Automatic annotation (TrEMBL):
GO MF annotations, alphabetized: carboxylesterase activity
Species assigned in the record: Microbacterium azadirachtae
Phospholipase/carboxylesterase/thioesterase domain residues: 17-210
Record-stated family: Belongs to the AB hydrolase superfamily. AB hydrolase 2 family.
Protein name, per record: Carboxylesterase 2
Record keywords, A-Z: Hydrolase
InterPro entries, per database record: AB_hydrolase_fold, LYPA1-2/EST-like, PLipase/COase/thioEstase
The keyword Hydrolase belongs to this UniProt entry's keyword annotation: yes
Superkingdom, taxonomy of origin: Bacteria
EC number: 3.1.1.1
């Protein structure tokens, strides 16, 4: 079992703090920090609160920035360290976004794996996940069956020339996501371990769909009346 970790709440970057708006949480990649994905705000939908979180661990010297879990645990079958990071995100949500009407997560690389793990830990809480150049952590979690039933919308985008994520994890994710989510997936020819404007346009459309779904009227219960 991994040791609990915590998000530095003072370091979180916000576009605004408005609990009446849907919340989009950004989870950066290994060796980066909360300032990185915050630069994507101009590409993201309006009408949401955006919060960019710092990972709880420092990356080992001489790597700059921060990490969500030790990089040498990338291919472990035991997802305990990824789960510890996801639990830290959920505790942060408890403290800072308990009344948000809907929550989506957008992560890159390590942050993407934590975003998926957070949805697996609490399927009812996370309405949508954007997985950029990331993967689904191996291993089973108690929430996986509920996630499979709920069919949470997930966008998975990756580059055809991304050689950072091990092939075995890509194969695992390609099998796991369609079984556990409503998957929108795309591979971008020539893209490395990075994000392109083309991919960001696809992300914007996906997130617009999340927001449109919040405005749609609830279906009538056939048992009413």
């Amino acid at each position: 079992m991994a040791e609990p970790v915590e998000i530095d709440r003072a370091a979180v970057r916000w576009t605004r703090q408005d609990e009446a708006l849907p919340l989009l949480v950004l989870l950066h990649g290994y060796g980066s920090d909360e300032r990185d994905l915050f630069s994507l705000v101009p590409f993201l939908p309006e009408g949401v609160t955006v919060a960019s979180l710092p990972a709880p661990l420092g990356a080992p010297w001489p790597m700059p920035g921060r990490s969500w879990y030790p990089i040498d645990e990338l291919e472990r079958r035991d997802p305990a360290s990824v789960t510890a990071a996801a639990e830290a995100v959920l505790r942060w949500l408890d403290a800072e976004a308990a009344d948000a009407p809907s929550i989506a997560l957008l992560g890159f690389s390590q942050g993407a794996s934590v975003a998926l793990q957070t949805a697996r830990e609490d399927p009812a809480r996370i309405a949508a996940v954007v997985n950029l150049s990331g993967y689904a952590a191996p291993g089973d979690l108690p929430g996986d069956a509920a996630l499979r039933e709920r069919r949470t919308p997930v966008f998975w985008g990756r580059g055809s020339r991304d050689d950072v994520i091990p092939p075995a994890l890509i194969v695992h994710t390609a099998q796991w996501l369609p079984e556990h989510s409503e998957l929108t997936g795309r591979v971008y020819p020539g893209l490395t371990h990075s994000v392109s404007e083309e991919e960001l346009a696809d992300v914007r459309r996906f997130l617009d769909g999340w927001l449109d779904g919040l405005q749609a009227p609830a279906p009538e219960d056939p048992l009413d009346g």
